[in-house]
Predict the 3D structure of the following.
Amino acid sequence: MEKPAQTQYPIESSLSQRWSPRSFADKGVDKETLRSLFEAARWSASSRNEQPWRFVVATQDKPQGHSALADVLVPSNRRWAVKAPVLILGIARLDFEYNGKPNGHARYDLGAAVTSMLVEATARGLSAHQMAGFDAQKARQTYQIPENFEPVVVVALGHAGAAEALPEELAEREKAPRSRLEQDAIIFEDAFGQSW
Ligand SMILES: Cc1cc2nc3c(=O)[nH]c(=O)nc-3n(C[C@H](O)[C@H](O)[C@H](O)COP(=O)(O)O)c2cc1C
């Protein structure tokens, strides 16, 4: 299923075609492709080039690892995300490697890297759904994540499937139009809140 953005102005198709499905087709993603997606993340910009992003990847061809990552999700996410052939945990390093002080932009940098990954995925006909709804403490224990790193997001990735494959109420949400704030509500000049 496709659900392209109704943009106010033209943008690249790898941005407008991206959306967050809950239905995933029963088709895996090969390792070479996954390597390219992580490569896209790796070449993202970061504050002081700290590259504070780390990832744990779990694929359905290794069922034990896949269900371990699915198990950290909240039940409302797990019910659909467990069908995604690839699950990725995004982790941010919260202190600077060069001086140990807090890196206030680590989560920003992780988000930028994940965005690059998703643009690369979309360009390759893949779909992804980011989730904040997971148990970070459980993820920390499952993967023995050190104190100075924070599990921030889980991404479900694969080929988007049919909305009809979902339970009815999720199928409705899957087909609902995408919405965004107008540019006037988010772009200002002279003072905060004063539209550009
Ligand atoms: C940081 C982040 C956390 C999110 N957490 C969840 C989540 O826990 N469950 C969920 O179903 N969707 C989650 N989403 C998906 C958003 O709801 C979705 O991106 C938003 O509604 C816009 O839709 P679109 O991605 O299709 O454009 C999350 C997205 C982001 C970026």
In short: Strands lie at 53-59, 86-93, 127-131, 149-158. Residues 19-20, 77, 130-133, 153, 178 surround flavin mononucleotide (CB under 6 Å). Residues 106-123 form the longest helix (18 residues).
